[in-house]
Amino acid sequence: MKIRESALQEALFKQMRTPEFYPHPVHSVTVCETHISMVFLAGDVVYKIKKSVSLGFLDFTTLENRRHFCTREVALNRRLTNKVYLGVSEITQKGDRFYLGGDGTVVEYAVRMRKLSETCSMKQLLRSGKIGNTDIDRLAMMLSEFYDSDTSDSPPDMEAAFETIRQNCDENFKQTQPWLGSLFDGDCFQSVWSRTGAFLDRQKPLFFRRMEDKRFRDCHGDLRTGHIYFTDTGIQIIDCIEFNDRFRYQDVGADLGFLVMDMEFLKFSALAEQLLSAYAGYAHDPEVYVLISFYKCYRAMVRFKVNCIRLQEHDVSQQERNKLLEQTKKYLALSDGYADRFSRPRIWVICGMPASGKSTLAQALSLALNIRSINSDVVRKKIFPAPPTDPGNMPFEKGIYSETATSRTYDTLLSLAEKEVLKGNSVVLDATFGREKYRKQVVSLAEKLGAGILFAECTVTDPVLQERLIMRNGRHTVSDARISHFQSFKNRFEPIQKIETGHHLKVNTQASMDACLSKILPRML
């Protein structure tokens, strides 16, 4: 900050703290300060002034820049508000006095807003238990419609867009390195940074697909509970990012990730999950779950960085400093937990009766997660190449389907899964898993490797199973199961009863693929 501008702003801020400064009735002035703004709540009006600072990701050091970004802030925030952003006010100076408007020299600009009651803020409503399912649903619908209203195309250069994601992540870590050591756990910090980079390297295709699917939009950029108000005139969402487009133009998951992370920080995880579920349904975007832990980690590090910057400012009281330190450590711990989730390999067991839709679901899940799907029929036929024959006339559990052959098939299936997990990858296993002993084997493997595990049991009615098996007659399929084997499979299938509820769910594959994925993918959280 230039010395002259610093002194000028300090003088201005001193006058703006007094009710007499304002040309409208004001009994008292409440002041809120962030690392980049001074906000003055004066009666029914709020005036927000940008500090003359340069932080790498923003530059407010010139009057023209501050004017430009004030104008930009009003225009962008009117997208998600109704009659809240009133305009930009000039602040003039005559002698040693400052005025709102007037014919003096223009020395500053202020965003002028209608004051919203803090009792209506989402943060306060959550804390007072006044946010219900209907409110969460309304917010999810509003956000879905907002993202959908952006008709701009995907980034013309996806490589550049992906590098922007990496830049945004790295910037958080690089700018906060100076505060490690006595204040914060450097090992934890470095671990989160390392896992973030590894995830970006490994899962680049996921980000590209989100771009291709037009899930990158001109978003809000700072979507937090303190910026959302439930008012009599509707939901108002204020304070979007105006100072740097790369923080705002992003995956909608990164936008939602901020809000979900903030709700979890405030210990409202159940409502956060509900919000995400409602959004995924309205937007037909079940894949938002695939990257949400990564984005929540990124957002927790954003708050870590912002707090670190604020901690270095000279006007922070000891009481505020202690509170900030506590919050900042919590954000680092939260980011570490999210990094565990997105970096921990999982074994996704897609199981069930033949013709229950396992392979279709396994392929969709493999694509959504950008991981390998291993099909037991393919594995079996690599081990036991069989001459062409009519599958319908093949005896049940004989030949390449004997107990010995099936055990060898599952041993190979798990061996291949182990290789994937040891490389740090999750994996989809596409097999019947109709015997408890095979399910025990894969659970033991997951425990040995420290991997997560989920059994998604595909279910449909018997008539549907039979119809699907009949449709295979006369067709070449990788599976040799046919209608003649139906009753034998049904009699032999051992119900899944000894898998913990948290690791087992049933998926009706007669539903849409979006619905199936929406049931499975939240288990990543």
* Strand arrangement in the largest pleated sheet: 1-2-3-6-4-5
**Mean pLDDT figure:** 93
Q: Which class of the largest domain in CATH terms?
A: Alpha Beta
Q: What coarse outline follows from CA principal-axis ratios?
A: elongated
Q: Which fold name is given in CATH as the topology of the largest domain?
A: Aminoglycoside 3'-phosphotransferase, Chain: A, domain 2
Architecture of the largest domain, according to CATH? Alpha-Beta Complex
**Strand percentage:** 15-25%
How many strands appear in the DSSP assignment?
Answer: 15
**For this structure, what is the CATH homologous superfamily of the largest domain?**
Aminoglycoside phosphotransferase (APH), C-terminal lobe
Terminal-residue CA separation: 42 Å
**Domain tally:** 3
Q: Strand count, sense and closure of the main sheet?
A: 6 strands, antiparallel
Task: Name the structural class.
Answer: alpha/beta
Overview of the structural elements:
This protein is an alpha/beta fold and 525 residues long. The chain has three domains: 3-115, Phosphorylase Kinase, domain 1; 120-343, Aminoglycoside 3'-phosphotransferase, Chain: A, domain 2 (Alpha-Beta Complex), CATH 3.90.1200.10; 346-524, Rossmann fold, CATH 3.40.50.300. The protein is 49% helix and 16% strand. The chain is built from 19 helices and 15 strands. The strands form four sheets. Strands 1-2-3-6-4-5 form a six-stranded antiparallel β-sheet, sandwiched between helices. Strands 12-13-11-14-15 form a five-stranded parallel β-sheet, with helices on both faces. A two-stranded antiparallel sheet has the order 7-10. The longest helix is centred in the middle third of the chain and has 26 residues, at 318-343. The protein is elongated. The model has no long low-confidence stretch (mean pLDDT 93).
